[in-house]
Amino acid sequence: MVEEVQRHSVHTLVFRSLKRTHDMFVSNQANLPEVDENLERIRKAIKARDSYGLVFDRTARAKEMKALRIEHSDPILAITNTPANVLPSESSSALVPVGTVASTTGTSKQFVAPAAPNAAPSNVQLIPKKAPTIPKPKWHPPWKLYRVISGHLGWVRCVAIEPGNEWFATGAADRVIKIWDLASGKLRLSLTGHVSTVRGLAVSAKHPYLFSCGEDRQVKCWDLEYNKVIRHYHGHLSAVYSLALHPTIDVLATAGRDSTARIWDMRTKANIHTLTGHTNTVASVVAQASNPQIITGSHDSTIRLWDLAAGKSVCTLTNHKKSVRSIVLHPTLYMFASASPDNIKQWRCPEGNFIQNISGHNAIVNCMAVNADGVLISGGDNGSMMFWDWRTGYNFQRFQAPVQPGSMDSEAGIFAMAFDQSGSRLITAEADKTIKIYKEDDEASEESHPVNWRPEIIKRRKF
């Protein structure tokens, strides 16, 4: 009679196997083999050589070179005194000629070796070289608020100054573009046509045209002689956040949330180039006559310099660690600045060489403006404004924009700013639905508002 084999689950069989293994080796649990120290040392040496072989070889070579220098060095460590008509550098026993040598601290000194102890006194002495100095910032008068203009029914998102300096235009979340008299601050005209927030404005210096873009994906050209739209530029796939006019040729640059910048023929409405390469929203675009003619800043933390003829990126600047929301060109110098929550950085064209960091504006910097006098102003998302000296990065004034009565304190953000053509008036577009105009304080002087400049607190320039 064949006995039936009892069937067990896989779980039971595995458990029994583990139990047999445990019972077999439990008696030898504490009896570990002795460690061979020689083998252990060899194992560690092999591991170290495998991981740090290059370091060991370089250290060995450095020690050999040091030993050779010590072996062949001359034991005479002093320069004997020479006649008065013989220069120290002409002495045959001089080890170190009179000249500039680098010190271990990084500064340079004029070094002259002393005479031998038993020699007659001479006029040889240690002449310290003047340490490199940080340039003193230029004095700028402080700025003050002198006019607040109300009229929009939503956040004011953009501002543009007319080249004749007679009026300026603003666009807001109420979908209306308003034209204001610059001298009196009175409303001249309201233009309606956008169906969503107006995010960018530009006034042509050669034509009676006003260009606008918005979150409705539309780019419009307004004829200011008839106060109506005469052209639409179709092509963006999402909201258009910024636009710029080329100063010498009839092209328009726009950028937006579809991660591209587009170059348009102003007259034919043709999309000449689509500048692709950014991986996130392009928040700012500027145009200039010399190369690079187009510069863009994006939420992917990069700045790109574009070849307008080829429609390709020639350089990508990756120094920023956070979103680049604003780029501004200096009106007279061949430089530009970019703003991000980590730092404001200055660059030199055309290669985009890094110049310096301007640190201290601890906020999301939405906008910047600079005038020919070297005053750089940055506006933050919390209503803070910082006034900087362009050359040195010295912060000579801080200002908190007051909110309109009845507004919440959280509506203190500054979205756009621009100097008028003279550089003596600053116009800001803000979240409390107002436009504010600032001017220099005429009563201020260097005695009443001195430059509080201490070189030791200025941080070293770094990336």
UniProtKB/TrEMBL annotation:
Top-level taxon of origin: Eukaryota
InterPro entries: Prp46/PLRG1-like, WD40/YVTN_repeat-like_dom_sf, WD40_PAC1, WD40_repeat_CS, WD40_repeat_dom_sf, WD40_rpt
Any GO BP annotation: mRNA splicing, via spliceosome
Gene3D superfamilies: YVTN repeat-like/Quinoprotein amine dehydrogenase
Cross-referenced SMART domains: WD40 (SM00320)
Keywords from the UniProt entry: Repeat, WD repeat
First and last residues of every WD repeat: 149-190, 191-232, 233-274, 275-316, 358-398
GO cellular component term, pick one: catalytic step 2 spliceosome
Family the entry assigns: Belongs to the WD repeat PRL1/PRL2 family.
Assembly and binders: Identified in the spliceosome C complex. Component of the PRP19-CDC5L splicing complex composed of a core complex comprising a homotetramer of PRPF19, CDC5L, PLRG1 and BCAS2, and at least three less stably associated proteins CTNNBL1, CWC15 and HSPA8. Interacts (via its WD40 repeat domain) directly with CDC5L (via its C-terminal); the interaction is required for mRNA splicing but not for spliceosome assembly. Component of the minor spliceosome, which splices U12-type introns. Within this complex, interacts with CRIPT. Also interacts directly in the complex with BCAS2 and PRPF19.
Summary of the function given for this chain in its UniProt record: Involved in pre-mRNA splicing as component of the spliceosome. Component of the PRP19-CDC5L complex that forms an integral part of the spliceosome and is required for activating pre-mRNA splicing. As a component of the minor spliceosome, involved in the splicing of U12-type introns in pre-mRNAs.
Name of protein: Pleiotropic regulator 1
